[in-house]
């Protein structure tokens, strides 16, 4: 199958998966007595109706994309970081403490410093799990999830104790929050009257950076090699453990930065409930975006839309926002199932067969040779196909009509 | 079940297309009762696809399958089982941490009671089958405790317990030792009195020993059919590959062993295995520049540990390894690679390549940090791509493009990718572990020629293999390893299969 056919096949699978998720969502909406059509209309279109809605989507997409980028780095390096939530909280603490402690710094210094402090905090938390994995073989899922709890309790403790705004105790209502971050440390709002802040540029710049890191540098090459097949990487002289730790440091740093940017750009003080599950949604965004920056950026916008739409359905369509989380869950399941269809040659063969039966076209003429069975040149009556891209492309175009998947046939042959 | 036993099986005009590939091209094949048919061909010739069609895993695009003259359609492997067709796959389909009884019971639906398993019935059936066909198995052994040969017997027993009267064996000897292979062949000979057997292989001496008739597949077509006894292995090999195959042999008169220590020199090496046992117990071996030393032995006698210790993947307890005078015992893999050690690991799919990486990425896997492939930390993609096209041409790697995932290539081509990477680095020494395991003759010939070419360039080569023929063809000297010790080192010329076989079994005094 040639590239465009493969793309069409995969797109069709993704669309089918999305449709399946929508149907499951519809059943759930129906079960809680909501108007299905209205619920979907609100989720998918209401946020897009005005500038406010659109900017709010982007505001949510910023931390999501940063976290997802970090998770992509970790996953690509073979370590499953479930701890973005905790790393984000530690990042928030480090960032806001830095900003509050240095009130008289000029903007040009304090903003980068506060963001980097957030990165450092997240890196510490992520690196801890990476170190445990690399040196002691502690399962990273276990350690990151547990570190989430520690971070959450630590965060609450500081916000209700040492870091609490003294004013709240004296005059206020006792809300657990820090003092306001000094104005110089704020990330500016771009469009007046909205909450869209300059963190969007940080997110976009880092998306580009992650692409270059993973696919254009030798460090990224080794990280990906260690993640794709640790054994082969080790045999090739790559220090797999070192890159595991590096990956978790970076992954945590991204989550920490997401926290810092969220605080400096949106809330301007550390408050409770700020993470709002971003750390977990970020995992979904990363997977939905194919663990690639080019997919993660649009995916984070899509999930920003879902999150905002969820809030709106509560108000406009009378559907509890939590029900939209069910839709999220359905999407994850659909994505995971779709992969099965994309990667399993036997399933592909079956799908192709079924499609042929339904939309049966005449079989293409038999190609004279094959990629796999390309024989010795001395033996070949026809030119070796693998060496003749034009003929190969032609054949593939002929053969691609409604049949299975290309690259996997070699595997099926063995 | 409930179908009448197979008396004849016929394939007519079976055709199966994959995109860009015609895997089976109008194949006609008919197999009678009580006969052994060998199906031979190179990797990718369509053997496995054909058998998958016969097992109902694939549907043919054209053609029919006839059993006892009646056309049937297999929609799934269950249909094929019901007709008494059973397959023993190249990679065993056994659950490692279950007992033999449990493994057999998995497929025996008749033993599944609503809330329990009728183990007694399964055990009885296993004992019946194993007695009838002289296949001794211990029904209560856990599969992981069994040797590869024993596991193969379990596979056979399992298939027969499920009522197979028509056996398909996909490269059954590829994981067996020479002794186990001989036993299996003897066994199958006896069984052929009762059953029909299709034997897929590209080891021609096995084909000669076992089969009555042979069909040769090349590029999806049957190019030859005939009685095995009328044709020599060389004839069959030529038909299989489409040209004369002659495996090269070493000419071991020219090795300069004036240096007391070899270019690669191992002294009193002691290495622990995964279970804490002493896998290597004082191994001493010298390999001179331009010499191939073959290490013969039944697998599991310390070969893996030796290869890993030489390459820095396993820390030695004591002893010394020097490469060109530099001590390397206990060094990191990275340093050993940089010192000029080349390595063709045992498991090419998980140790030799990163399967999801492209061919071009795999070709620079070891040296991506070198100036040639990256500058200032950034990859030099154009150089990496050019390197790949160069090596592809030089090593005849057949891939649609160097951007293809290496894991999707055939075994022979994956091995060529590894070989290309290791040899292009210009190593001083090369450790080559089972380099042609599972490969067809064309690929084997190519790899052997490459190893000999490197030998004449002065590379010290340690060839670890179970294939005595391979070792005897290529080695200047042959060391036999048994239980972590080198039992004896003999000149390649004076070695015979018999003497090596005895040494491999631990018999050192003749």
Protein described:
The complex is a heterodimer of chains A (414) and B (510). Chain A has 414 residues and is mainly α. Chain A has 17 helices and no strands. In chain A, helix 2 packs across helix 13, helix 3 (51-76) packs antiparallel against helix 11 and helix 9 packs across helix 11 (240-267). The longest helix of chain A is centred in the first third of the chain and has 30 residues, at 107-136. Chain A is globular. Residues 362-414 of chain A have low confidence and may be disordered. Chain B has 510 residues and is of the alpha/beta class. Chain B has 3 domains: 9-241, 3-Layer(aba) Sandwich (Rossmann fold), CATH 3.40.50; 246-340 and 426-510, Rossmann fold, CATH 3.40.50.300; 356-421, no CATH class. Chain B has helices at residues 47-54, 77-82, 100-107, 119-132, 148-161, 178-191, 204-210, 233-241, 303-310, 333-338, 348-352, 359-363, 381-395, 411-424, 441-456, 468-474, 497-504, and strands spanning 9-18, 21-31, 36-40, 62-67, 70-72, 85-88, 166-170, 196-201, 213-218, 221-227, 264-272, 278-287, 292-296, 318-323, 326-327, 341-344, 374-375, 378-379, 429-433, 460-465, 477-482, 485-491. Chain B has a 6-stranded mixed beta sheet, sandwiched between helices. In chain B, strand 9 (213-218) and strand 10 (221-227) form a beta hairpin. In chain B, helix 3 (100-107) crosses helix 4. The interface between A and B is large, with 61 and 71 residues.
């Amino acid at each position: 199958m040639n590239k465009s056919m493969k793309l069409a096949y995969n797109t069709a699978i993704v669309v089918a998966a999305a449709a399946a998720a929508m149907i499951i969502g519809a059943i759930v909406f129906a079960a809680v007595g909501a108007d299905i059509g209205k619920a979907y209309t609100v989720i998918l279109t209401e946020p897009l109706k005005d500038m406010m809605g659109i900017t709010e989507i982007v505001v949510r997409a910023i931390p999501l994309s940063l976290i997802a980028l970090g998770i992509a780095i970790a996953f690509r390096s073979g370590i499953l970081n479930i701890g973005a939530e905790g790393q984000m909280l530690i990042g928030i603490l480090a960032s806001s403490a830095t900003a509050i402690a240095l009130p008289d710094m000029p903007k040009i210094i304090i903003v980068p410093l506060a963001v980097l402090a957030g990165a450092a905090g997240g890196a510490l938390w992520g690196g801890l799990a990476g170190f445990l994995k690399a040196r002691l073989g502690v399962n990273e899922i276990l350690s990151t999830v547990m570190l989430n709890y520690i971070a959450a309790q630590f965060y609450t403790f500081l916000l209700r104790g040492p870091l609490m705004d003294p004013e709240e105790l004296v005059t206020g209502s006792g809300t657990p929050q820090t003092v306001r971050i000094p104005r110089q440390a704020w990330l500016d709002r771009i469009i007046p009257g909205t909450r869209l802040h300059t963190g969007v540029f940080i997110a976009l710049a880092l998306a580009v950076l992650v692409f270059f890191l993973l696919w254009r540098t030798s460090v990224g090459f080794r990280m990906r090699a260690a993640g794709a097949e640790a054994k082969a990487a080790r045999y090739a002289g790559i220090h797999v453990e070192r890159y595991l730790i590096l990956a978790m440091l970076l992954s945590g740093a991204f989550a920490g930065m997401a926290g810092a940017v969220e605080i400096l750009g949106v809330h301007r003080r550390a408050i409770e409930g700020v993470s709002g599950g971003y750390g977990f949604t970020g995992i979904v965004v990363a997977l939905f975006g194919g663990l690639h920056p080019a997919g993660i950026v649009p995916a984070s916008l899509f999930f920003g839309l879902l999150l905002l739409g969820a809030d709106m359905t509560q108000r406009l369509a009378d559907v509890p926002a939590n029900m939209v989380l069910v839709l999220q869950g359905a999407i994850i399941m659909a994505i995971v199932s779709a992969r099965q269809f994309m990667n399993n040659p036997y399933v592909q063969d079956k799908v192709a067969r079924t499609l042929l039966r339904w939309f049966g076209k005449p079989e293409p003429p038999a190609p004279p040779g094959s990629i796999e069975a390309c024989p010795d040149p001395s033996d070949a009556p026809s030119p070796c196909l693998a060496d003749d891209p034009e003929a190969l492309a032609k054949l593939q175009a002929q053969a691609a009509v409604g049949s299975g998947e290309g690259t996997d046939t070699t595997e099926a042959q063995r | 079940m409930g179908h009448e036993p197979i008396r004849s099986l016929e394939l007519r005009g079976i055709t199966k297309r994959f995109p860009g590939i015609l895997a089976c091209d109008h194949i006609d094949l008919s197999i009678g009762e009580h006969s052994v048919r060998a199906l031979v061909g190179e990797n990718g010739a369509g053997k496995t696809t054909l058998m998958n069609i016969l097992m109902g895993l694939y549907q043919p695009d054209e053609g029919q399958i006839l059993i006892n003259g009646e056309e049937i359609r297999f929609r799934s492997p269950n249909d094929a089982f019901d007709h008494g067709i059973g397959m023993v796959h190249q990679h065993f389909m056994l659950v490692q941490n279950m007992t033999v009884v449990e493994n057999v019971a998995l497929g025996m639906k008749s033993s599944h009671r609503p809330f329990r398993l009728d183990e007694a019935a399964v055990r009885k059936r296993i004992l019946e089958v194993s007695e009838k066909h002289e296949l001794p198995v211990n029904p209560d052994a856990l599969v992981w405790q069994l040797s590869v040969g024993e596991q193969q017997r379990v596979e056979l027993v399992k298939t027969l317990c499920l009522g197979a009267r028509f056996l398909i064996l996909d490269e059954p000897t590829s994981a067996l030792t020479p002794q186990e292979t001989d036993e299996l062949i003897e066994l199958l000979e006896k069984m052929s009195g009762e059953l029909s057997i299709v034997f897929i292989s590209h080891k021609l001496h096995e084909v000669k020993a076992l089969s009555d008739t042979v069909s040769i597949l090349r590029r999806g077509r049957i190019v030859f059919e005939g009685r095995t006894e009328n044709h020599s292995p060389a004839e069959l090999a030529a038909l299989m590959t489409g040209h004369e195959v002659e495996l090269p042999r070493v000419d071991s008169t020219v090795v300069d062993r004036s240096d007391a220590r070899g270019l690669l020199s191992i002294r009193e090496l002691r290495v622990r295995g995964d279970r804490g046992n002493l896998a290597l117990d004082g191994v001493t071996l010298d390999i001179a520049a331009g010499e191939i030393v073959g290490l013969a032995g039944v697998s599991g006698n310390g070969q893996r540990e030796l290869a890993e210790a030489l390459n820095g993947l396993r820390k030695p307890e004591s002893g010394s390894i020097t490469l060109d005078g530099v001590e390397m015992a206990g060094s990191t893999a990275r340093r050993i690679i940089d010192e000029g050690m080349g390595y063709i690991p045992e498991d090419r799919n998980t140790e030799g390549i990163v399967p999801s990486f492209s061919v071009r990425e795999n070709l620079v896997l070891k040296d991506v940090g070198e100036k040639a492939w990256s500058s200032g930390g950034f990859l030099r993609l154009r150089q990496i791509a050019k390197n790949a096209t160069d090596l592809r041409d030089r090593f005849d790697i057949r891939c649609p493009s160097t951007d293809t995932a290496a894991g999707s290539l055939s075994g022979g081509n994956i091995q060529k990718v590894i070989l290309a990477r290791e040899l292009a680095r210009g190593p001083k020494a090369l450790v080559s572990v089972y380099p042609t395991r599972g490969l067809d003759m064309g690929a084997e010939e190519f790899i052997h020629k490459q190893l000999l070419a490197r030998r004449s360039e002065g590379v010290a080569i340690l060839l670890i293999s179970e294939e005595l023929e391979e070792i005897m063809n290529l080695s200047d000297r042959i060391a036999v390893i048994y239980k972590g010790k080198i039992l004896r080192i003999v000149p390649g010329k004076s070695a015979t299969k018999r003497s090596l076989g005895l040494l491999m079994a631990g018999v050192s005094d003749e």
